[in-house]
Structure formats: C-alpha cells, structure tokens
Amino acid sequence: MSVTAAKGFTAAGIAAGIKENGNPDLALVVNNGPRRAAAGVFTSNRVKAAPVLWSEQVLKSGQVAAVVLNSGGANACTGPKGFQDTHATAEKAAEVLGTGAGEIAVCSTGLIGVTLPMDKLLPGVETAAGRLSEHGGEKAALAIKTTDSVHKTAVRTSETGGWTVGGMAKGAGMLAPGLATMLVVLTTDADVEAEALDRALRAATRVTFDRVDSDGCMSTNDTVLLLASGATGVTPAYEEFAEAVRAVCDDLGQQLIRDAEGASKDIKVEVVGAATEDDAVEVGRSIARNNLLKCAIHGEDPNWGRVLSAIGTTKAVFEPDALDVAINGVWVCKNGGVGEDRDKVDMRYREVHIVADLGAGDATATIWTNDLTADYVHENSAYSS
Amino acid sequence: MSVTAAKGFTAAGIAAGIKENGNPDLALVVNNGPRRAAAGVFTSNRVKAAPVLWSEQVLKSGQVAAVVLNSGGANACTGPKGFQDTHATAEKAAEVLGTGAGEIAVCSTGLIGVTLPMDKLLPGVETAAGRLSEHGGEKAALAIKTTDSVHKTAVRTSETGGWTVGGMAKGAGMLAPGLATMLVVLTTDADVEAEALDRALRAATRVTFDRVDSDGCMSTNDTVLLLASGATGVTPAYEEFAEAVRAVCDDLGQQLIRDAEGASKDIKVEVVGAATEDDAVEVGRSIARNNLLKCAIHGEDPNWGRVLSAIGTTKAVFEPDALDVAINGVWVCKNGGVGEDRDKVDMRYREVHIVADLGAGDATATIWTNDLTADYVHENSAYSS
C-alpha cells in the first residue's frame, strides 16, 4: 500500500547506516510513468533545510522522477556543505535511475545542525535502487520514521474511475502549521497535470496538515509531495480527485496527531460562529497552543477559563460576553461566564472535543492538537532530536 | 518594606476566608497623601476580568486613594455579577476609608470563572482597614500569593533626593507579555504628577514585565499600579525617577521568573544585531516560547537547531546564513551552520544565557523565560488554577 498502492510506482526502504542503531533510514520512491507530473508544498519556516531548498527548485518544473528520503539527520543549518550533500544525493539517484538530477526530489529528517554521513548515504541510494519493488511502500514508510512509534500510510481508490491516491507520512513532534514537522509523499496513478496536482495539494494541506498543531513548533524540513504516474490513463474530474487527495491528507494528519510525542489526549478544537475562516483559524491555533490549557486537559480538568484567556489574545472579531465554550458536549461557558456544571464533563477518553462559539458569524475551522505531558518533556529533554 | 517603604502609605494583609485553606488572601494598600496621583498598566488580553475593567476606569482620573487586592479567585469571566462584586468591594473600601469608590482600585487573582465569596470578602475589607500599618507591606505581599512559593518585594531609594520607590508583586505562572500574570503595586513618596507617573510606568513595564515570558500564556487579570503620596515633598528629575521605577520593576520581574512554576532553569534570551528593537523582541519571544527548546534546556542539551527553527518563524530582518547563536558563551552556531563544539557548553547551572545575533543591525532586546519541565505539567494539570 502506501506510495506503491497507485500503479506506476516502485519503492524501497533500507538501513543504510545513517542511524547508528541500525534501523531503516533510507527510502526511495520512483515514478515509472508514463507521466512524471508532480507538485510540492514546503515549510514556511525561513530557516529551510538544504533538501527543502533543493526540492523547491526541482518542483518548479512540475516533474519528479523519484524521491530520496532519509531519516537520521535533517541536513538543516549545515551551510554550503549541506547543500552540496543534497545535490550529490540527487546526482547519485539520477545516475542509478538513468535520469537527470533535476528530476530528483530529496527529503531529510532528524537532528538539525549535523551533516549527513555521505559515505553511508550514497551507497545506500544504490542499494535501495536495487531493491525497488511494487510492494515496497511499507518498507519506505518504515525507513522515514524518527520518533514515530508507528509508520503512517493511507490510500483512497476511486470506485468509478479505478485510480488511486496513496501515501506515507512521518512526524511525531515539532508539529505546527506551515507545515507540521513531517515528510509526506503521495502518489497517484490518475493522469493529472502538474498544475491541477498543485491546486489539489495546496487545497488539501491548507485544511489538513496545516491544521495539525501538536506543540506550536515549526520545522525546517517539512515537505509534502504529490507524484502522478498517469498509469491508469484516467483523468478524473478535478473535484473528485481533489477530494481524494484531501481525504488521504486528512487520514495521515490524524495519524500524526494520534502518534504525537508523549500525548495522552487528542484534542479537537472546533471554532464556530467566526466572522471569517481566518478568524476561526487564528482562534483555534491560539487555543491549541495554550500550554496551560494543554496541561489542564492532560489532568482531565475542563478548565474553560484557559480557553477564554487564549481567545482573548487574538485579533478575531468577538465580544467577550458573547463567547460560549463546550467541552465534550457540555457548555461550561455561556455568554463569557459560568455555564453548565463543569462536573458533567466526562474526560476519561482519549479524544477531547472543545467547541468555541465566537457568536460573530458563520465561519468555522478545526485545529487538532494534543495535551502537554511529562512524557513530552521527557522525550524532548532526555536526548537531542 | 514593600509598598510601605515609601512614606505616606499604610497596608495590611489578612486571611479573610476567601481561600479555603485559611491562608492570607486579602490586601489593602492606602495612600495617605498629601497627594494621590496614580498610574496603571493593564493586561492587553481582550477577555478582561471585572477588577481590570473597574480599575481601568478608576485610573482615568489619575487619582487612587487605595487598592484592594484579593487572591483565591480571579473574578474573571463572571459576567455582570462579577462586575457588581468588584463595585461592591470598592464601595466597602470607600466607606471604611471615608473616600469615594471612584478612587479605589481593585485587583483579583486566582481561578478564572468562579465568583468571589462576598460574604467573606466585604467583612475582610473592614478587618484589613482596622489593621492598616506603616509596616504592613510584607503582610500585604504575602496575601496576594497564589502558586507563588515566595512573596516578592523590591525597593529603591534616591541617595540625593531621599525619596523611595517600593513595591510588591505576585505571579508564578501564565506569565506572558502584555503583561505577565501578575499583580504589582508600586508606591513612591516622591511628588510626581499622574502624567509623569504614567509615562515612567509604561516605559518601565515595556522593558521589564513585558519581557518576562514563562509560558506564553497571557492572563485576564494583569495589573501594575504606581501610587505617589508626595510625602517627601520632593519632585525628582524625571529621568532619575523613571530609572528608579524601571529598577524596581526589573527586580520584581526577575523574582517572578525565578519563582516560575516548575522551572529548573532561568533562561536569558538576548537578541543582538537586529534591524529594529521590534524585530529583536519578536525573535526573542519566538525563541522564549519554543516548547522544544525549553525542553532541551531542561535536559541541559545546547540544541541550537531549535533556536534557529524558532527564529525562522518570525518576520524579522535576517539572512539564514548570517545567523550566529551562543549558548552560555559558546558560539555553537556560526553563519547559520555548525559553529564551536557543543560539548564545550556548560549547562549545569540554573541560569542559561542564549545570544542570537541576527547580523542585520544594532538593535537589541532581552526576553526572560524558563525551561519546560514535568513539574510545570504537574502543577498545571493536577488541580484547577
């Protein structure tokens, strides 16, 4: 499944020795055509890793033949040497695949500020190329894990058109919009031009990965790629195709949140009654990033005062005495003050649903986040990552 | 000392029974003149507690006769009833002190969304008025504590002018600019007009309390008041007076950071080489609010990649390959890449000093924050606060 669910793609995942513990750390995804259309969305962090700078250039042509991905090192903040390393990686893949380096996208993930062991990585590209398979999607998904406890894949197939959108993702921390710290490769065997791929991908990430915010920290390496082989020969209606891309992105985004570092609760922050969607997103993010609220949720405390104090820091349209807040279906805050009995709120389960009604319009947005736990602190303080 | 270090002030702190555990919870600070000039700075959170809404009105006259402060309840998000309670508190203080309610400022701190026990609070105001003393400053400082482990006071006296600026503060969590979750009352026996008090107070809070950011969470109740009795009859030069106010605010701000909930490290984030002071502040805040970095510092890990990824989320003027970062004096990042050996960084001590050089100009700013610890999570999840 994963990136090889769609026809026309092969993939491999191997242990190249980049990770010192011997775990899989190198993935290769190849588009065997007949088409090689592609689109990409990258981190909006201004400190961009070398592979992001490289792949942004590659994607400008709207053509990608293959993607090389490594875990075990982000190749970020590594200066000119880091960019040369990414370039050499693309050259090596182009050489073994018989194409041009300008059609090879590169993604890296791991610790920032460490150069990659190229003596391991370049032979690894050759080994991976020798193991490419139409069933290699799972292995590729395993090879891009960092602190992920499970690998993440998702697939949607059109019942009428016979085409498929599939993909893989990694990410478990430093998850914040624009994008979450994630590498995602999506593939499709539908026959779609690069321009439509780009439109569908941007529309999908805007309402999925961009609304996953585990810890408010934005990465230097985020990359989401969508590759189309055209192997089915079917060109779907744009809306149906875009919806399939959105569904796969949504599925993968949910998997990222459920695997977030140290989390014990998945929190759905739904903002309704906003004057604009931008207002709804701003308020949702502010609530989702409030450490005090995230601690309260961890303690199963329906502390709605912390929701209101988070809303109050935004520029959204609202009147403080018109704010309503529900936690798990109980409207604990009405008209900016005390509402239903907070003892009625049942918070025993992993999923927590917060609704904030701004009473200012009809726009809505949903942001997904997690609670803040001692385990998160431990995972991010006990060793470098 | 505290608010009674300056001549012309009396204060009291008592246990009125607002807190169920019987700890001190009500403070009264009275300006006995001959002047009653005053200035105030309040939270920029748009969800403001009733006492903030009340005191903002009081301060418009530039005159304050007394301040009533309670811990054990924030009186925030309590609707019209909450505002009536604040009004009744001011009326009671005015009655027992023989002045008008329009000259009584009110401050509250504690849990949001709970109305105050007025049957305890109003008799408490009367009791406190009966215990007013020129030596009551310490007791007042003790009565405004919430999760504070210690009470905070500071005093500066002019060697040449003989006048004093003193004050008290509370705050240990929900510390973020605009302002930190704090109540602060400053007093002076210098003879200063309300306008100059306001100017000096705003200048001081901008570079002290507004740059203390323990957890990025902004409160609904923040209040900083400065009261002048004129009891020395001395009108100092503005610059000397403003500097004394700044020094007292800086001292109290440092005490807040050192007592932040669950913290094991105090982190000084110094941004230099910025194009503007606003840029320096934006970058400093972004670094200070990065949960991943705060966890790394807790683990004594000089993870400068997390500093760069935080800088990259800002709109400040900089080039990624011109960024330098020092941690405890070691330039671990040079020109956006690997710098000196990170093993040279000694992080055993409580104070951690991060310098980020943007290489874009001469402006600087310093933001103070703390590490993120399991103890912070525990303090903010184990019970409502």
TrEMBL record, chains A, B:
Acyltransferase: present as a keyword of the record?
yes
Q: Which reaction does it catalyse?
A: N(2)-acetyl-L-ornithine + L-glutamate = N-acetyl-L-glutamate + L-ornithine; L-glutamate + acetyl-CoA = N-acetyl-L-glutamate + CoA + H(+)
InterPro entries documented for this protein: Arg_biosynth_ArgJ, ArgJ-like_dom_sf, ArgJ_beta_C
Q: Where is this site: Cleavage?
A: A180, T181
EC number(s) from the headed UniProt entry = 2.3.1.35, 2.3.1.1
Q: In which pathway does it act?
A: Amino-acid biosynthesis; L-arginine biosynthesis; L-ornithine and N-acetyl-L-glutamate from L-glutamate and N(2)-acetyl-L-ornithine (cyclic): step 1/1; Amino-acid biosynthesis; L-arginine biosynthesis; N(2)-acetyl-L-ornithine from L-glutamate: step 1/4
Cite the entry's keywords alphabetically.
Acyltransferase, Amino-acid biosynthesis, Arginine biosynthesis, Autocatalytic cleavage, Cytoplasm, Multifunctional enzyme, Transferase
Question: Which parts of the sequence are marked as the site Involved in the stabilization of negative charge on the oxyanion by the formation of the oxyanion hole?
Answer: T109, G110
Q: Where in the cell is it found?
A: Cytoplasm
Which Pfam families does the UniProt entry name for this protein? Answer: ArgJ
* Residue numbers annotated as active site: T181
Residues binding substrate, per UniProt? T146, K170, T181, E261, N380, S385
Q: Which superkingdom does the taxonomy of this entry point to?
A: Bacteria
Q: Which family does it belong to?
A: Belongs to the ArgJ family.
- Cited NCBIfam families: ArgJ, PRK05388.1
The entry describes its oligomerization and partners as: Heterotetramer of two alpha and two beta chains.
Q: What is this protein called?
A: Arginine biosynthesis bifunctional protein ArgJ
